[in-house]
Amino acid sequence: MQQRLNLITPAHLQRVNAALSESWVLGQQPTDTCVLQVAVGGEAAELYPLLGAVLVTTNAARAQPAGRHPVVLYVVGQQGGLVPFDSLNAFAEGLQASLKSRDGSMLWRCIGRHQRAQLRAAISALPKGTPLQVSYTLIERNVLKDLFLNLLQHYLALQKRIDQGEKLFSEVSDPQLSAMLLAQELFECLQIPANDARTLALANVNLLQEAARQAKKLPVWLGIASTGQRKHYKQLSRRYLANAWAVENKLWQDLPDLEAFARDALIARLSEDGFYPQLDIDKPLLDLPDDVSAQLCGWSSQCAVGDRDYKKVVSPQRTTFSLLQLALHNLDPKAPWTRWRLNRARWLDPHWKDRLSVGYLIKMIASLDVGGEYDKHVLQAFYPPVPTSGASSGLSQALVYRALQQRAEMQLYSAVQEGLSEEAQRLFSFAMAARSAGDLQADGFDVQLAVLRLVGVTLEQDRHIAGVLLIHDKLSGLCVVYWPTALASRVIVGYASLVEAERALNRLGALPDNLKVLARQVAPGWESQALDRYPGEDLGVSPRRRFSGRLGIVAMERVVTWVAEFFTVRHKVPAVAQDSVEAQIQEQIALLPQAWLAAVPTSGGNAMALLAHAQVFDLQRRTQAQSQSAQALQEYREQRLGEQFDATIRGVLSFVPVLGIGASLYEMLLAARRYHFSGSAHDAVDVAFLTVLSFVDVLLTFAPGPKGASAARASLAPVHRHQGFARAGLKVAPSRPLNLLERFRSSGGLEGAVELQGPGGKGRYVKNGQQLLVEGDEVYPVYQRPNEGGLRLKKTPGEGEGELILKIEHPREWLLGGDAPVAVPPARVFQPWAPTRSASDWAPPSHARVEAALRASPVAGSAWQNWAVWHSDPLPEVAPSRRIYRMPAGPGYPPNEVLQLGQQHYYYRLLPQGTNASSERVVFIMKNHDLHFRAYVDMERWLGIADAEQPVPATLGANGLWTPHQPLFNEPLDITVGRAFPDLTVNSRRFVGERLTELADTGSRITATHLLNIRATLDHWLAPQTPGRMVDLFKMLRPVAEPGAGSANIGIDGLAPGFVRLDFSPPDHLNSSLLRRDVGVPTLRSQAAQSAVRRVLEHHGFTVKGIARRQGGVSGMDFYCTHPHTDRVYFVLTHWVDNRTVSLRSRVAPQLSDAWLQDRISAATPYSLEFIAIDNARREQRLVRMVAGIQWSVRYDEPASVYFAKIAPFTP
């Protein structure tokens, strides 16, 4: 570079290149290149070498120092460089001038630090005009290697001097600081010499490299675009970048950097406590173990046998913190391991160990809560409060939305050049302009926004990916994916369906560049927590169900799911660090390559708000990666203490003989899971240890032996006393019989008594209106209470209050009755798995309108004609005028009715009419297959995977001809039910469809009556302003509990088959704090449940009046409800439920029983008209007793739902 700038000649450059060449060896010719080590001094006896400096010249220059030969001085280090000379004497003169200069010279850095004072004294002692002594020594090995080794040896020697207490730096006495300064000096000596031209050249190279990297991010179409297209795209880009810079600049004006924020907060607190500025918050202060845990020795192979104490386990990994780093790390004052860690700290500055106590550190650091407070500042910066006067801090929504809108316009223009269709352009622009859910249904669109979910296979819950939008038009099926930050794929892409878009995202998201972008877009926390943080309206996203919950396989599937999750879920805390998130995404791709991403439809309508909040998520995630908030520490503490509590319970259960085996086996599974995840030898030892321990527990519990025999005898002693003592070889005194009946004996005889006849009359007499019982020679007076099967011995007056109840068994006499046979209905086949049909007062509406609409419907296609069955023999005619015949039974087919259409001998099988066929002029043609399954199974198949096999209705015209029509149904039942009841949950829609199919006809097999009644009911529900739809659902509900039960097992939404509950989506957003068990939460839960139940009922036309209730110290409200479509009265008991069971126990009688209602009515003050109506409805059997509320529990991984369940009436 210097040669190109004409700073050195080609001859000098040639010598330098030759010396630096790997093949260079010292030659003997005058023209050969040589390298010289320089030493200087005042006298020849005291010479000091120039470290890090060499001379490159020729052998001729050494022989003729005054001759003109190329000489180059090369000095390593940041302050070094190349300096050319024309002769060795010229170099010596320049060296002398530099060292004698009063301004100092950079060459003094080449003199050893401990020798500089001596050389300065020697130079000062020289007489004026006397030259310095300069000596040259040949270097025979590689130049750079020689320089490097000499520097290392020199600085090692200086380090030893520091260790011995020598003061190398005049103003520094601290050995540690001296060592740090020495290391910095060595670091600078090993750097490449600085050069302005080189710095400028490298800057230009870096600029070109960055331009090349950015060019790769530009759209491909720019390479073939016209000048006008490039100019327009450039304008759009500039406008977007200007606004994006304005947003960024305004944000960081109002929001300080996290470290600066932590520094200010910490300095303010330390100054208040009197520790600052004496305490350096940046200086390393203490070294802490990463974790300290308490482990019960009973489950560890590291403890002695029989040891049941808790052992503290300190992790070998340790981290050094300054006070500022500790403030960012944060401490949990309620976690016991916080104090355990600090008690095992190594203080790097012992001076502060006594002044900064453990208690003060915990209290002070926890009170700062740097991460939590900074998170509040982030939210205030993006969503500032409305200013009362003057300018406000924070970002305005208009500024953020403008930047996002201009980015969308720029990327849309690029997508159009890449081939985005016009329909997709319209859909994208329409969705981006919407600001609410109502705006998404206009201009021929019915748009639903969807977000992206990272499906958690090895994660405890799913994660939410922000900043990616799927815009789905439900009318056309078109779906536009908008991924603004995508690197390896197009930003805006249109797909034919939502499913196709999801598949493409799974494929494109796995690309390396896109994977890194996705990792940065994963929102902090689990999916449910992230979605709750979006401002404005609730997005209405339900958690993913980990199992389908289909009937018949629920228990087995839950067991399989639990086992699979037990050995696959390894991450119970959501990761926030970039590399950790990326590693977890790769885990999900490896286990679920085709479905690790899922599209999640939402009820939101503001796409801009979703994209804007993605920036908040990104900043929050980066903040949480650097600093833990108090809330995050609390969640970790609750999880860890919960696991410890479970371990304690298992430890207590281990002392119970049988339950202890279960605890041992579970501990063995836990150890196996730890070994499965870690693969460490320590965990393998634990697995072996616990396996042996479990085997011993099983052996000692179930193996026969003296101890087991004695325990069994002790438990059976009241029954087998004689046998037990006999086995032990002991003599037993004869036991005296108990004379329990002596005081009930009658002194009179049986003179004049009449013996009773009939069943149970043997041995019983009546005398003077008194029943007598004869046992041997003794007579006992007895009586029998109404509705009681046993006899009571009548007590003698004045002999106590006790009674003895006798239950007398009589041997039965079975008579075959062969001489008088009686006709009875044939016995049904025992079907233990068949659904029980419960009584219901619901009846389907008339299907006359369905038949009328059917006759006016279009004619069916021709696919059904392939269902014809050819039969050559004549068939018996069932209805001669309608051409319906009876087909005899065939292999695998029972007898059935068929319809003759078209050619002779071609018949079409008919669906059975059922018990309430409305007309002989409507039949259903079906494919010829047997109907073995329940009606709903066939309906689900016909409306799903076998939609082409749905029976075709046919009507008989006045001309005597049959006309096939289009099928009655064009979508699954749960979808139609969802359109009639949009607020019903997905699972309830499915169960409503099953119950409707069951009640549509009396038989269990599908019939024409089923189809007509189902269609009539759905049309009735879908008609606008239809009253009584909710009343129909309540009538169809099965009672959830047995009469008089103390609790009702309502199950879980989706896992309670048989239609024993109705579930609705909560009308209001529920705060996740309701899941905690803090003070005051029960009252908030009760209020939330009452509000949700009232709003659902009033939405469906019920008149709701509250009835105050107080139970367990929590005030509540039950409801008295009426509906104009029915004369029934509904009493609704409200409960918040976090498990499967609703408790109905009370001090009087089971809640909702007659006795409980009467007690509540009588205790009401003042006596209200509602209670009068409830009591009258109860007497007239018009009272419907229900329990309703909110069910929400993290335990079952289910979203919250508003449930309704019916309770059977009970009179104790």
Automatic annotation (TrEMBL):
Pfam annotation, one family: ToxA_N
Protein known as: Dermonecrotic toxin N-terminal domain-containing protein
Lineage: superkingdom: Bacteria
Dermonecrotic toxin N-terminal domain: residues covered: 253-522
InterPro entries per UniProt: ToxA_N
Organism: Pseudomonas poae
